[in-house]
Design brief:
The complex is a heterodimer. Chain A is mainly α. Helices cover about 70% and strands about 0% of the residues of chain A. Chain B is elongated, with a radius of gyration of 29 Å. The chains are: A mainly alpha, B alpha+beta. The interface between A and B is large, with 60 and 56 residues.
Chain lengths: ~190, ~300
């Protein structure tokens, strides 16, 4: 039988602190992934993830609807990460590839063909290269990309987590995909020259 | 096709690539894409991007994350500390402990300059190898050992350990560090322990390898870790409940039934030793504060390297 969040939360609120570990184990990957994608540093992500779970423990009694536990936890993770970025005034905008030459080599063989097919460009895409492109996006776009494609949340859930209208979330997703695709194509073109 | 004709479909191309469009709209966009080479190319590229993004996968947090959070969570709050302080002076048991302790501390301070300090600083992890207890006496085989002391108990199979009210202990048993909560009684066994009453948490060091098995037995069940983290709650005459935090455990009931339980799942054993598949199992909310006067077992082991998750 599956342990429900409601059972775990009821136990913690009744004084059984040990049960809180269930919540940590269940959500730690999702929280750590979002925080890491936003702050882009593993050590900082670890510290902030601890901070997130401690905040959740302290504010567990504030959770009105246990059915929304997941989005509430992710909301705390998102806000905690944004606060950290704001305090440190970390540049949230994209930077060029640090090693553009290496990237260009990936596409070198495309120069042999006059007009590479989209399928041949797609063949060169890989999760690790996409991951690098995502990390170069503005924070608001990489947040949506992380929640949607890496963590698998629905648009409605993302809207709830980010406290944004559904249409804004969908537009950010579209714009982020456009940016990633365009940058990938730019690298492909540079590689051809 | 002209850019003007493609404009209304621009934002919908990513939805189409994701498979997010409802049937009537999907058909309309697909019809346009079939007739427009530029948009067709865009959809192929977007599909490639979406597929690659979906394969990135979640980050695995460091193994110590849960332990570090739980250590902080379990620290007494300011209110709890104040509550204890306010109550302690009126407790005769506290006076019995406090007077000799204060005397010992004063004596130690007075003698400190005369005694060379050969202690090695220890992190919390190092405490695993040193038995410590606090809040009162630890009773081993009926013999009380003084409060607020660490010692070399050298526990061996067959030894019976008991903690009284407010007494807690951290004991090395085989390769595990066992945290014993107040009002607990257990017996050390060759492959683990038998808990007859109370609450324990077992920490097994991952570096001891998967060959090490630690069993927690209760009156009507045996719980073995399979490289995992789990908790057991047992109350005589009531259901035995096993909750799994991570990985899997194997539960063998007194009636011989064997069942594996996965992460975020629980299994209950009836007092007669049968696996209970009914839904009327008391939730975790019934644990903790209501356990006064009842017997309870908890066991938590750390994941072992290479073990299945």
């Amino acid at each position: 039988m599956k342990l429900e969040d409601s059972e775990v939360i009821a136990a913690v609120l009744a004084g059984d602190k040990d049960s809180f570990e269930h919540l940590i184990r269940k959500y730690q990957s999702k929280v750590f992934t979002l925080v890491f994608r936003l702050v882009r540093d593993r050590e900082t992500a670890l510290d902030l993830t601890q901070e997130v779970f401690f905040k959740i423990f302290q504010k567990l009694s504030d959770l009105k609807d246990v059915g929304k536990t997941s989005s509430w936890i992710m909301q705390v993770a998102h806000n905690t990460s944004l606060d950290w970025l704001k305090k440190r005034k970390v540049d949230a905008f994209a930077a060029d590839f640090e090693d553009q030459q290496t990237q260009q080599k990936i596409f070198q063989h495309l120069a042999d063909t006059t007009s590479p097919s989209p399928e041949s460009i797609v063949e060169l895409m890989s999760p690790s290269r996409m991951s690098e492109l995502v990390s170069k996006l503005d924070v608001k776009y990489r947040t949506v990309i992380t929640l949607r494609f890496i963590e698998g949340y629905s648009f409605k859930e993302i809207a709830k987590i980010l406290n944004l209208p559904l249409s804004t979330v969908k537009f950010r997703k579209h714009y982020a995909l456009q940016l990633i695709k365009d940058r990938w194509m730019q690298i492909a073109r540079d590689g051809e020259q | 096709m002209s850019a003007q004709e493609c404009q209304p479909f621009q934002e919908l191309l990513t939805d189409l690539a994701e498979g997010e469009l409802e049937a009537p709209e999907a058909a309309r966009v697909e019809a346009h894409v079939a007739a427009c080479a530029a948009c067709k190319r865009e959809v192929v590229l977007f599909r490639g991007v979406v597929q690659s993004l979906s394969k990135i996968g979640e980050e695995e947090p460091p193994a110590e994350l849960a332990r570090r959070v739980m250590t902080r969570v379990k620290e007494p709050t300011l209110a709890e500390r104040l509550g204890r302080l306010l109550l302690l002076p009126f407790d005769p048991a506290f006076l019995k402990i406090a007077v000799p302790t204060v005397a010992a501390v004063l004596l130690a301070i007075a003698l400190k300059p005369l005694v060379p300090d050969n202690r090695v600083p220890q992190s919390p992890e190092h405490i695993a190898g040193v038995p410590v207890w606090w809040g009162g006496s630890l009773v081993v085989n009926g013999v009380p050992h003084g409060p607020n002391r660490s010692g070399r108990l050298g526990l061996k199979p067959g030894d019976a350990v008991r903690t009284a009210d407010r007494v807690e202990a951290a004991l090395p048993i085989r390769t595990a560090r066992v945290e014993v909560k107040p009002n607990s009684t257990l017996m050390v066994e060759p492959d683990g322990l038998f808990l007859s009453a109370g609450e324990i948490m077992v920490h097994i060091d991952p570096k001891d390898g998967p060959s090490e098995t630690f069993r927690v037995a209760t009156g009507n069940a045996v719980i073995e870790h399979i490289g995992t983290v789990f908790k057991v709650t047992a109350s005589p005459g009531e259901l035995v409940r096993t909750e799994v935090f991570q990985g899997r455990v194997r539960v063998t009931s007194a009636s011989g039934e064997v069942r594996e339980v996965g992460a975020s799942e629980y299994l209950s054993i009836t007092p007669a030793g049968a696996i209970d598949d009914g839904a009327s199992v008391p939730g975790p909310a019934s644990l903790g504060p209501q356990r006064s006067g009842s017997e309870e077992v908890r066991s938590i082991s750390q994941p072992l390297p290479g073990a299945p998750r």
